[in-house]
């Protein structure tokens, strides 16, 4: 009897998998499934934080442990629009770390961070490139307040200017001193503000942009078309995290290690635009 039940169960699972696979070919159903999976991962993350957060706070000490911004201090555990522990561990947007390492080596004079949140990139790059002036745009008052606190705690407040909403007009008006780097993660507004026809200095700036889906658009293709005359483009894909790379998590249960590293990232990934004139 148990053998028959097992066969029926196996057959039912196979049928369910085939139906799910076919359903994933329908764009709307694919989006629904992705949303459900992402919400589940986020729930697992916060459940893990509730269980091991205090332990991790003691282990990490409010300081970024690894990656290009190792040693950066976080003030009061404040993050805006993301999760704290991937940033402290050093796994946050790990796909971009080779780009960030390259950017640090280029020694930019001006850095413009659009959608700076609490300052992971704005403050991290200010620390890593001592000669750079940073303009950090953040519309959320909580983010702007955290930016000021982070700049103060990391000793870079004299070189970080915190601004509000990034518009074409106030971007064009910035006192840019080349070479310039732009880091942009503004939840879709990149399609409005990253326009080299309206912001003249973008033609010579290097740009790292997280690409977000926009209704009725091919977001990657649109951005690449805008910059194709002046920039070389490298597509950067989203990859799964490997918790074994972070020994600070070794003492946690496997399920908690994976859940702690959760971060919400658009599946369109990023584009690293290198200005052609900067390479000459």
Order of helices and strands: HHHHEHEHEHEHEHEHE
The CATH class of the largest domain turns out to be Alpha Beta
CA gyration radius, whole angstroms:
21 Å
Anisotropy-based shape: globular
Q: What is the third-level CATH name, the topology of the largest domain?
A: Rossmann fold
Tally of extended strands? 7
Question: Which descriptors apply to this entry?
Answer:
280 residues, alpha/beta, Rossmann fold
Produce a short descriptive summary.
By secondary structure, this protein is α/β, with parallel strands linked by helices.
Your description of this structure?
The chain has 280 residues and is α/β, with parallel strands linked by helices. The protein has two domains: 2-45; 53-279, Rossmann fold. The protein is 42% helix and 13% strand. It has helices spanning 2-23, 27-60, 84-89, 97-106, 120-128, 141-153, 168-172, 190-193, 219-227, 254-260, and strands at residues 110-114, 133-137, 160-163, 180-184, 206-210, 231-236, 270-275. The protein has a seven-stranded mixed β-sheet with strand order 3-2-1-4-5-7-6, sandwiched between helices. Helix 2 packs across helix 10 (254-260). The longest helix is centred in the first third of the chain and has 34 residues, at 27-60. It is globular, with a radius of gyration of 21 Å. Residues 27-38 have low confidence and may be disordered.
């Amino acid at each position: 009897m148990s053998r028959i039940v097992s066969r029926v169960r196996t057959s039912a699972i196979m049928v369910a998998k085939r139906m799910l696979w076919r359903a994933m070919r329908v764009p709307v159903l694919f989006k629904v499934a992705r949303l459900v999976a992402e919400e589940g991962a986020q729930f697992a993350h916060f459940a893990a934080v509730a269980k091991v957060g205090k332990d991790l706070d003691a282990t990490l000490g409010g300081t970024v442990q690894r990656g290009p911004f190792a040693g950066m201090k976080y003030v009061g555990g404040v993050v805006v629009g993301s999760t704290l522990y991937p940033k402290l561990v050093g796994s946050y947007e790990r796909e971009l770390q080779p780009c960030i390492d390259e950017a640090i080596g280029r020694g930019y004079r001006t850095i413009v961070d659009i959608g700076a949140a609490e300052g992971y990139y704005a403050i991290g790059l200010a620390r890593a490139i001592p000669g750079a002036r940073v303009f950090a745009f953040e519309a959320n008052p909580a983010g702007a307040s955290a930016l000021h606190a982070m700049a103060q705690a990391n000793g870079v407040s004299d070189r970080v200017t915190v601004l509000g909403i990034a518009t074409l007009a106030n971007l064009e008006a910035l006192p840019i001193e080349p070479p310039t780097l732009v880091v942009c993660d503004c939840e879709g507004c990149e399609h409005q503000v990253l326009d080299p026809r309206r912001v003249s200095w973008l033609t010579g700036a290097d740009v790292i942009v997280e690409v977000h889906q926009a209704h009725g658009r091919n977001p990657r293709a649109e951005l690449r078309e805008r910059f194709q005359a002046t920039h070389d483009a490298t597509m950067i894909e989203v990859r799964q995290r490997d918790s074994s790379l972070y020994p600070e998590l070794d003492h946690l249960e496997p399920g908690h290690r994976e859940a702690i590293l959760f971060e919400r990232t658009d599946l369109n990934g990023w584009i690293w635009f290198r200005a052609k004139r900067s390479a000459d």
